[in-house]
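Q: Structure for this?
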Amino acid sequence: MNDAVDPFEAIKVVFFQECDELLGDLEAGLLAIEGGDTELETVNAVFRAVHSVKGGAGAFGLEDLVRFAHVFETLMDEVRAGRKACDDTMVKTLLRASDVLADHIAAARGQADPVDAARSAGLVAELEALTRGEVYVAPAAPVSDPVMDALATDRTGMDAGLAGGEAQAEAPFEPVPVMPGLPQADEFGFRPVVFDLKALDTLPPPAVANGWRVVFRPRGRMYAHANEAGLMLRELARLGQATVTLDASELPDLEAMSAEEGYLSWTVDIVGASESDVRDVFDFVGSDCDTTFTALADVAASAEAAPAFDIAALLARAQAEVAAPMMLEPIVSMAVAPPAPGAAPVPAAGTAPGTTTAATARPAASASPAASPSVTAASAAPTIRVDLDRVDRLINVVGELVIQQAMLAQRVVESGLARSSGISVGLEDLELLTREIQDSVMAIRAQPVKSVFQRMPRLVREVAEMTGKRVRLVTAGEDTEVDKTVVERLAEPITHMLRNAIDHGLEGPDDRVAAGKPAEGTVRLAALHRSGRIVIEISDDGRGINRERVRGIAVSKGLVAEDASLSDEEIDNLIFLPGFSTADTVSDISGRGVGMDVVRRSIQALGGRITIASSPGKGSVFTLSLPLTLAVMDGMVVSAAEQTLVAPLTAIVESLLPRAADVHHVGGHDAVITFREKFVPLIDVAQVMGFRTEPVPPSSGVAVIVETEAGVRAALLFDAIQGQRQVVIKSLETNYQQVPGIAAATILGDGRVALILDVDALVTNARRKPVRADLKMAS
Amino acid sequence: MMMMNETPSSSTTASSSTIRELIAFRIGEQEFCIDIMSVREIRGWTPATPLPRAPGYMKGVINLRGAVLPIVDLAARFGLATTEPSARHVIMVAHVGGRLVGLLVDAVSDIIQMDGATLQATPDMASDQVKAFVKGLFALEGRMISLVELGWIIPDVEAQAA
Amino acid sequence: MIKTVLTIDDSRTMRDMLMMALVEAGYRVIQAVDGVDGLETLSAEGADVVITDINMPRLDGFGFIEGMRSDPANRSIPVLVLSTESDAAKKQRARDAGATGWIVKPFDPVKLVEAVRRVAA
């Protein structure tokens, strides 16, 4: 673009180019639907194409195009919402409409003659009729036809609405001229003083000498939407002369205070503002904020003033109280606040009792940190707020420390120094200290799972409603802490499993009553620590796993041999197999094609395990077990064809030296080895990885018996085992991408990168039929 | 993602905005260059840990002060030849779309300043592979230096998954 | 400090128009083409304000806001929803998802900037 071109015109050119693409998408989508495509996404794409044309056209004031596109879009909206079915008649009409739309675009571009008005009007009539659920029949005599008259009226109404180039009755952001010279927000972003505004001449003269009183009390939800009372107050202040009073009488004791609720309310009297302006300020927050509006003239002179806010009294009370552990919770959640220095994402009601505002104005970059330490120091075990950045950096550096310490230890060993020498002993101490530092640092980043659990009640309500089931969600252990890296990735698997539990696990209310159960089903979500890991249990009191059916499905999908004898547990675990999900198990809810195998994979990606226990007629329990942190792992360092690899210790059962007699060959390439009376597949890892093309005799190497999440066992063949170590996990995806068979990477003592094996992927890919693993040796 | 563009309406646009600072490097007999802002550091070759079943141009990964850095053999990526890396070779650590990538080249020549407006189109006789990665040619004192588009070096994983 | 606005819209026209209005008002603008791209860009680059369309492929505006708000670190970033529709139900949906405000398009650049100033201050 050069300076001579008006940028607006340049964008218009872009718009028309985009219209070409959109028309292409539109037609392709409609043809697909005509050809039998019933995907929701196809319909959505058609809707979006028309919607985008309309949006852009509106921006350039292309009235005819907007009008036509609007009618088109309205019908598409009905279709995508499922309120109208797109049958053959409709598709054909839509295709014709897309032609007319193209004509409108060409006309607007100046490339063609104006659109044939009659044809366009005819299509509009057809589209509108279809939107009403009727089929339009062209009138024989166009004169004084009630349908046409009605249409004309409709169109007028639409014109009026669209003429403004902007939407309708509800105009949200009524802009108010920015007031120059407004004093900066103080560190809390709150100015509980009377405003003295200058430059009032930019405001329209107040229609009424009197004004309005607004009492508003934000709810926690409002803050969760990045709205703040400070913003409301500022807007109100711009409307006229404002007097503000704060009511903090509902502020509870510190222990009872939640960092995310609102307890404060403000009364603002604005002189010189109109009712609509005042209401507009709160237009968007709607029900997130309790508001009442009263004309100042109606405010009784004897109205009680809001109780004065006595900071000193509140502080004294805080200091007098014994710090309850509950106090720590809001502070901890502050400590893991966003990197923006000092900015609190949450109302300062949780920060400290002393601050007078729940509106820690985010824009005021120097917000509350100054306030909190002094107050909290008095009332709770001392805490400080730390930028998340710093914590992350600290953890990285400690991770490096671990690596360096390992490298040092290696060099010392290589140098041949005796283990009893001062240096070696010193190094061992160093290793212990390093681990301790690492554990402490990890604890800093620990977060309660509450943030994930909190979203679940709503999810449960939605799924219950969609499936017509009655569900009660019970949660436990939401204060259980786990590393931030794990917490963030729990949401998805938990969500899927809850959906599953409600959709498939629970019976409908009638069935439940018939079975002697309460109509309302219970789903329980609990978190706890167990043997150094975090365990999440999701249980329901539904129908349990129908083992007959599961087994039948698995057999019909070729996942299991028909005559295979499986224990109850093995049958339950069949649902985790890829390819298990059937058409009717993948409903809209648990939907979009997510089966339990995907859930399991995402748990495994976290280094976790998932198991299921089920009782037919009584319910099921899914147990997720996860490491407390993603950053380190205990591994077995092995070599394969000159490459060093690491196998996660959690997957390893045993290692052994294979004897030729124990190895049997099946088919052309596959080998199995006997282990504890069973045959398990023997996987030559070097070959699978492509590090070596020729197979080697198994007896020349070492076999590591591993077990996948589903309990399937295999033997991984390596050249040698180098040792066992805790390793720092480095992601491959950060700078590259996921590599099949490899979970992550680490840096060994010699400074070189070693790949960490994805045991489950290795075993699953090597096995073609699970049947072989079931072969039992004749006793 | 896009950075703020200079809009025509901003009055400070001058031809100085088209001068680019580039780092020129050699692969075989050919010279290439990339935007110097993309390059983080230059280091010598260290043996890389191979990735299983990776494309031929992926030499493996190395440890860059604790980060796992993939190494792309640019000669192979451009369809020229596969490099047998040695201590004489150079790795340019570059920022490509939010990732750090190591580019294996024969040698780094120098830092040059070129006026972006003088970029010539890649001639038709260039091979398809080269054309895929090369945005154009600069002529400098008798040298022909091809400007490389780094974004295409590592195929976008999302594009495959979408 | 220059504030960064992340604009998410699958229409190139709209992105260009937003950029024009915002850059002239002194903001730095980064763009994304749909909800998924939006979440990635936000996580990679951060932003002071987000403006997002509703109807987009892969992940729509509501999905983006919900995804964004699910990370507590993003709670204080204001999100303005940009849409041609403005019925109360959609607004409530936007509110429920976590939006801070609503702008109707076609938008008046002056009003757009005012809205951004109002929430980003």
